[in-house]
Amino acid sequence: QVQLVESGGDLVQPGGSLTLSCAASGFNFRRYHMRWYRQAPGKERELVAGITNGDGTTNYADSVKGRFTISRDNVKKTVYLQMNSLEPEDTAVYYCYGAGYWGQGTRVTVSS
Fold it and tell me: Quick check: helix, strand or coil at residue 31?
């Protein structure tokens, strides 16, 4: 069955960095666009970044441009989200999405 398993969430101080991973299985990973979303407490889920299946074109929410980088490894069937210069406003549960499926989420807390 399709599985998307996120990892890498943690408590980090403002200005710090984290890398999230999403390991995919159960579908032809290289054929699908992949996305990262996040949901902060009391807010709706929002798109953070996406990467296409073909040439790996990326797109980002304005709030994370220049700080976050999405990438993928089609051999490892994994999509990554490198997050730098983290701010308290980045605190959220981060979800991986692809092929119509969601992962279970990984929590990122940015606090001093």
Answer: helix
Reference 97, options 35, 31, 40; nearest CA is 35
Phi, psi of 81 (to 5 degrees): -135, 105
How, if at all, do strands 106-110 and 11-12 pair?
Answer: parallel
Backbone angles phi, psi at 82, to 5 degrees: -85, 125
Q: Name the band, by pLDDT with cuts 50, 70 and 90, for residue 54.
A: confident
Strand, helix or coil for residue 110: strand
Residue 98 amino acid letter: G
Residue 71: name the closest of 102, 99, 93, 49 by CA: 49
Cβ–Cβ < 8 Å for 70, 60: yes
